[in-house]
Amino acid sequence: xxxxxxxxxxxxxxxxxxxxxxxxxxxxxxxxxxxxxxxxxxxxxxxxxxxxxxxxxxxxxxxxxxxxxxxxxxxxxxxxxxxxxxxxxxxxxxxxxxxxxxxxxxxxxxxxxxxxxxxxxxxxxxxxxxxxxxxxxxxxxxxxxxxxxxxxxxxxxxxxxxxxxxxxxxxxxxxxxxxxxxxxxxxxxxxxxxxxxxxxxxxxxxxxxxxxxxxxxxxxxxxxxxxxxxxxxxxxxxxxxxxxxxxxxxxxxxxxxxxxxxx
Length: 263
Prior knowledge:
By secondary structure, the chain is an alpha+beta fold. It is built from ten helices and nine strands. The strands form two sheets. It has a six-stranded antiparallel β-sheet, with helices on both faces. Strands 1-3-2 form a three-stranded antiparallel β-sheet.
Protein backbone atom coordinates (compact mmCIF):
# COMPACT_ATOMS: atom_id res chain seq x y z
CA UNK A 1 0.00 0.00 0.00
CA UNK A 2 1.47 3.37 -0.94
CA UNK A 3 2.25 5.70 1.91
CA UNK A 4 -0.18 8.59 2.45
CA UNK A 5 0.86 11.81 0.75
CA UNK A 6 1.38 13.52 4.11
CA UNK A 7 3.92 10.86 5.12
CA UNK A 8 5.66 11.12 1.75
CA UNK A 9 5.91 14.89 2.11
CA UNK A 10 7.34 14.53 5.61
CA UNK A 11 9.92 12.06 4.33
CA UNK A 12 10.91 14.42 1.54
CA UNK A 13 11.39 17.32 3.97
CA UNK A 14 13.75 15.19 6.06
CA UNK A 15 15.58 13.86 3.00
CA UNK A 16 16.00 17.40 1.67
CA UNK A 17 17.48 18.64 4.97
CA UNK A 18 19.74 15.58 5.11
CA UNK A 19 20.93 16.38 1.58
CA UNK A 20 21.91 19.90 2.64
CA UNK A 21 23.64 18.49 5.72
CA UNK A 22 25.58 15.98 3.62
CA UNK A 23 26.74 18.48 0.97
CA UNK A 24 26.99 21.56 3.22
CA UNK A 25 26.45 23.91 0.31
CA UNK A 26 23.53 25.83 -1.25
CA UNK A 27 21.74 24.05 -4.11
CA UNK A 28 19.65 25.14 -7.07
CA UNK A 29 16.24 23.63 -7.75
CA UNK A 30 17.68 21.67 -10.66
CA UNK A 31 20.45 20.22 -8.49
CA UNK A 32 17.97 19.19 -5.81
CA UNK A 33 15.75 17.49 -8.38
CA UNK A 34 18.73 15.69 -9.94
CA UNK A 35 20.04 14.43 -6.60
CA UNK A 36 16.70 13.43 -5.07
CA UNK A 37 14.71 12.32 -8.10
CA UNK A 38 11.69 14.29 -6.89
CA UNK A 39 9.35 15.85 -9.48
CA UNK A 40 10.35 19.45 -10.11
CA UNK A 41 6.86 20.85 -9.47
CA UNK A 42 6.43 19.19 -6.08
CA UNK A 43 10.02 20.06 -5.11
CA UNK A 44 9.41 23.71 -5.91
CA UNK A 45 6.21 23.63 -3.84
CA UNK A 46 8.04 21.97 -0.94
CA UNK A 47 10.79 24.60 -1.03
CA UNK A 48 8.21 27.40 -1.20
CA UNK A 49 6.55 26.06 1.95
CA UNK A 50 9.87 25.79 3.79
CA UNK A 51 10.75 29.35 2.75
CA UNK A 52 7.39 30.59 3.98
CA UNK A 53 7.96 28.89 7.33
CA UNK A 54 11.49 30.32 7.57
CA UNK A 55 13.44 27.05 7.38
CA UNK A 56 14.93 27.63 3.92
CA UNK A 57 16.16 30.82 2.28
CA UNK A 58 16.35 31.53 -1.47
CA UNK A 59 19.10 33.69 -2.95
CA UNK A 60 17.53 35.16 -6.09
CA UNK A 61 20.86 36.33 -7.50
CA UNK A 62 22.28 32.78 -7.64
CA UNK A 63 18.94 30.87 -7.70
CA UNK A 64 20.25 28.77 -4.81
CA UNK A 65 18.47 27.44 -1.73
CA UNK A 66 19.96 26.82 1.71
CA UNK A 67 18.59 25.99 5.17
CA UNK A 68 18.40 28.79 7.74
CA UNK A 69 19.42 28.80 11.38
CA UNK A 70 15.86 27.84 12.31
CA UNK A 71 16.67 24.29 11.27
CA UNK A 72 19.47 24.15 13.83
CA UNK A 73 17.20 25.75 16.43
CA UNK A 74 14.79 22.81 16.21
CA UNK A 75 17.36 20.64 17.97
CA UNK A 76 18.91 23.19 20.27
CA UNK A 77 17.33 21.56 23.33
CA UNK A 78 19.28 18.34 22.65
CA UNK A 79 22.61 20.00 21.91
CA UNK A 80 24.47 22.12 19.36
CA UNK A 81 27.09 24.84 19.43
CA UNK A 82 24.63 27.33 20.95
CA UNK A 83 26.03 30.36 19.11
CA UNK A 84 22.70 31.59 17.76
CA UNK A 85 21.07 31.40 21.21
CA UNK A 86 24.08 32.53 23.25
CA UNK A 87 22.63 35.41 25.34
CA UNK A 88 25.89 37.36 25.62
CA UNK A 89 26.58 37.23 21.89
CA UNK A 90 23.00 38.20 21.11
CA UNK A 91 23.19 41.22 23.41
CA UNK A 92 26.54 42.24 21.96
CA UNK A 93 25.32 42.06 18.36
CA UNK A 94 22.31 44.20 19.32
CA UNK A 95 24.68 46.65 21.03
CA UNK A 96 26.84 46.89 17.88
CA UNK A 97 23.74 47.69 15.83
CA UNK A 98 22.73 50.45 18.24
CA UNK A 99 26.24 51.92 18.30
CA UNK A 100 26.71 52.01 14.53
CA UNK A 101 23.19 52.22 13.11
CA UNK A 102 24.12 49.49 10.63
CA UNK A 103 23.36 45.79 10.35
CA UNK A 104 25.38 43.80 12.91
CA UNK A 105 25.99 40.06 12.71
CA UNK A 106 27.68 37.12 14.38
CA UNK A 107 28.97 34.47 11.97
CA UNK A 108 30.61 31.04 12.05
CA UNK A 109 32.40 28.95 9.44
CA UNK A 110 30.50 26.36 7.41
CA UNK A 111 32.90 24.78 4.93
CA UNK A 112 33.82 27.38 2.31
CA UNK A 113 31.10 29.71 3.62
CA UNK A 114 30.29 31.71 6.70
CA UNK A 115 26.80 31.46 8.13
CA UNK A 116 25.16 34.36 9.90
CA UNK A 117 23.94 33.02 13.23
CA UNK A 118 22.65 36.31 14.68
CA UNK A 119 21.51 39.43 12.83
CA UNK A 120 20.47 42.74 14.39
CA UNK A 121 19.11 45.45 12.09
CA UNK A 122 16.38 48.04 11.81
CA UNK A 123 13.34 48.03 9.54
CA UNK A 124 14.64 50.34 6.82
CA UNK A 125 14.90 48.89 3.27
CA UNK A 126 17.84 46.51 2.84
CA UNK A 127 20.26 46.61 -0.08
CA UNK A 128 20.54 42.80 0.13
CA UNK A 129 18.74 40.21 2.22
CA UNK A 130 20.47 39.69 5.55
CA UNK A 131 18.91 37.29 8.04
CA UNK A 132 20.00 34.45 10.30
CA UNK A 133 21.04 31.44 8.26
CA UNK A 134 22.26 33.21 5.12
CA UNK A 135 25.59 32.05 3.73
CA UNK A 136 28.44 34.18 2.40
CA UNK A 137 31.64 33.02 0.63
CA UNK A 138 34.33 32.73 3.27
CA UNK A 139 37.17 33.97 1.03
CA UNK A 140 35.60 37.26 -0.08
CA UNK A 141 33.41 38.34 2.84
CA UNK A 142 34.80 40.34 5.77
CA UNK A 143 33.34 37.94 8.33
CA UNK A 144 34.92 35.05 6.45
CA UNK A 145 38.30 36.76 6.19
CA UNK A 146 38.14 37.58 9.91
CA UNK A 147 37.64 33.90 10.72
CA UNK A 148 40.35 32.83 8.26
CA UNK A 149 42.81 35.24 9.87
CA UNK A 150 42.85 32.93 12.92
CA UNK A 151 43.93 29.94 10.81
CA UNK A 152 47.36 29.03 9.43
CA UNK A 153 48.14 29.66 5.77
CA UNK A 154 48.16 25.97 4.81
CA UNK A 155 44.60 25.51 6.07
CA UNK A 156 43.43 28.72 4.38
CA UNK A 157 45.08 27.81 1.09
CA UNK A 158 43.27 24.45 1.10
CA UNK A 159 39.98 26.29 1.65
CA UNK A 160 40.78 28.65 -1.24
CA UNK A 161 41.42 25.67 -3.54
CA UNK A 162 38.14 24.09 -2.43
CA UNK A 163 36.28 27.35 -3.03
CA UNK A 164 37.83 27.61 -6.49
CA UNK A 165 36.63 24.08 -7.31
CA UNK A 166 33.10 24.62 -6.01
CA UNK A 167 32.61 28.17 -7.33
CA UNK A 168 29.19 28.34 -5.69
CA UNK A 169 27.68 31.71 -4.84
CA UNK A 170 30.97 33.43 -5.71
CA UNK A 171 30.59 36.73 -7.56
CA UNK A 172 34.22 37.80 -7.04
CA UNK A 173 37.07 35.55 -8.29
CA UNK A 174 38.94 33.81 -5.47
CA UNK A 175 42.72 33.87 -5.85
CA UNK A 176 45.23 32.88 -3.20
CA UNK A 177 47.56 35.93 -3.58
CA UNK A 178 44.68 38.35 -3.00
CA UNK A 179 43.30 36.32 -0.09
CA UNK A 180 46.76 36.09 1.49
CA UNK A 181 47.23 39.85 1.16
CA UNK A 182 43.87 40.52 2.82
CA UNK A 183 44.69 38.09 5.62
CA UNK A 184 48.06 39.72 6.26
CA UNK A 185 46.28 43.05 6.55
CA UNK A 186 43.61 41.59 8.86
CA UNK A 187 46.22 39.95 11.09
CA UNK A 188 48.21 43.17 11.31
CA UNK A 189 45.28 45.45 12.18
CA UNK A 190 42.95 42.98 13.87
CA UNK A 191 39.97 43.39 11.56
CA UNK A 192 38.91 42.67 7.97
CA UNK A 193 37.11 44.93 5.50
CA UNK A 194 35.27 43.87 2.36
CA UNK A 195 33.93 46.27 -0.24
CA UNK A 196 31.83 44.62 -2.92
CA UNK A 197 33.27 41.24 -1.95
CA UNK A 198 29.84 39.59 -2.05
CA UNK A 199 27.40 42.15 -3.50
CA UNK A 200 28.27 45.30 -5.44
CA UNK A 201 27.98 48.46 -3.39
CA UNK A 202 27.85 46.74 -0.01
CA UNK A 203 30.54 45.77 2.45
CA UNK A 204 31.36 44.80 5.99
CA UNK A 205 33.90 45.34 8.75
CA UNK A 206 34.51 42.27 10.90
CA UNK A 207 36.67 40.98 13.75
CA UNK A 208 37.21 37.45 15.05
CA UNK A 209 36.56 36.75 18.70
CA UNK A 210 39.86 36.23 20.53
CA UNK A 211 38.74 32.84 21.83
CA UNK A 212 36.27 30.23 20.56
CA UNK A 213 32.78 30.02 22.00
CA UNK A 214 31.64 26.46 22.71
CA UNK A 215 34.57 25.32 20.58
CA UNK A 216 33.46 27.39 17.61
CA UNK A 217 35.25 30.36 16.06
CA UNK A 218 32.97 33.38 15.84
CA UNK A 219 33.29 36.67 13.96
CA UNK A 220 31.35 39.85 14.69
CA UNK A 221 30.65 42.20 11.80
CA UNK A 222 28.97 45.47 10.85
CA UNK A 223 27.71 45.75 7.28
CA UNK A 224 25.89 48.10 4.95
CA UNK A 225 26.37 50.29 1.87
CA UNK A 226 30.07 50.99 1.28
CA UNK A 227 29.81 54.82 1.44
CA UNK A 228 28.18 54.65 4.87
CA UNK A 229 30.74 52.16 6.16
CA UNK A 230 33.67 54.22 4.89
CA UNK A 231 32.23 57.38 6.44
CA UNK A 232 32.32 55.87 9.92
CA UNK A 233 35.01 53.21 9.54
CA UNK A 234 37.02 54.32 12.56
CA UNK A 235 33.89 54.39 14.72
CA UNK A 236 32.86 50.89 13.58
CA UNK A 237 36.33 49.51 14.31
CA UNK A 238 36.28 51.09 17.77
CA UNK A 239 32.83 49.64 18.46
CA UNK A 240 34.03 46.18 17.44
CA UNK A 241 37.09 46.54 19.66
CA UNK A 242 34.89 47.52 22.58
CA UNK A 243 32.77 44.44 21.95
CA UNK A 244 35.92 42.30 22.16
CA UNK A 245 37.70 44.04 25.02
CA UNK A 246 34.74 45.01 27.19
CA UNK A 247 32.43 42.06 26.59
CA UNK A 248 33.99 38.85 25.40
CA UNK A 249 37.33 38.88 27.16
CA UNK A 250 35.78 39.52 30.61
CA UNK A 251 32.94 37.10 29.85
CA UNK A 252 35.29 34.30 28.95
CA UNK A 253 37.10 34.98 32.22
CA UNK A 254 33.90 34.59 34.20
CA UNK A 255 32.22 38.01 34.27
CA UNK A 256 29.80 39.54 31.78
CA UNK A 257 29.78 43.36 31.85
CA UNK A 258 28.14 45.07 28.88
CA UNK A 259 29.35 48.38 27.44
CA UNK A 260 27.11 51.31 28.24
CA UNK A 261 24.87 52.37 25.38
CA UNK A 262 26.03 55.53 23.64
CA UNK A 263 23.70 58.45 24.24
